[in-house]
């Protein structure tokens, strides 16, 4: 019941797509793929592709047992959810540069409940969002929320150089 990461391969840049390939000591394993502590999928395929936004680090765990417990995730995204209040649509706004900017407008479409996920948010910073019910005659009363984002630390940036003349390898980690 051990899963080994065999490779991590960058398939594409901008947006970055990374393929993680694993193996198990089980004969015919079912893999359980967790990203930031949330189950993203399960199946027998020993690889999975992940798309990363700029500035996003990948934190993935893979198990071959349904009973395994993933680590606590610290994603740098926020998932907003709210109940319908009889509006025609709902406008999600973000406080930026001293004014509200529209992120997305979601049509009501007869739904009773809504979930919307932000992009990657800056770590160690306060972020303000609000959901505004949009009615034919005017906007309804907005619901605001403020969060202080604390995410998993970014992976370090490693740069290196090799000097043919001296045979020295030097590197920097930032």
Give me a quick take on this structure.
The chain is an all-beta fold. Helices cover 0% and strands 55% of the residues. Strands 9-8-11-12 form a four-stranded antiparallel β-sheet, with no helix packed on it. It has a three-stranded antiparallel β-sheet with strand order 1-2-5, with no helix packed on it.
Describe the structure in your own words.
There is one protein chain. The chain folds into 2 domains: about 60 residues, no CATH class; about 70 residues, Immunoglobulins (Immunoglobulin-like), CATH 2.60.40. It contains no helices and 14 strands. By secondary structure, the protein is mainly beta. A hairpin with a 2-residue loop joins strand 3 and strand 4. Strands 9-8-11-12 form a 4-stranded antiparallel β-sheet, with no helix packed on it. A 3-stranded antiparallel β-sheet has the order 1-2-5, with no helix packed on it. A 3-stranded antiparallel β-sheet has the order 4-3-6, with no helix packed on it.
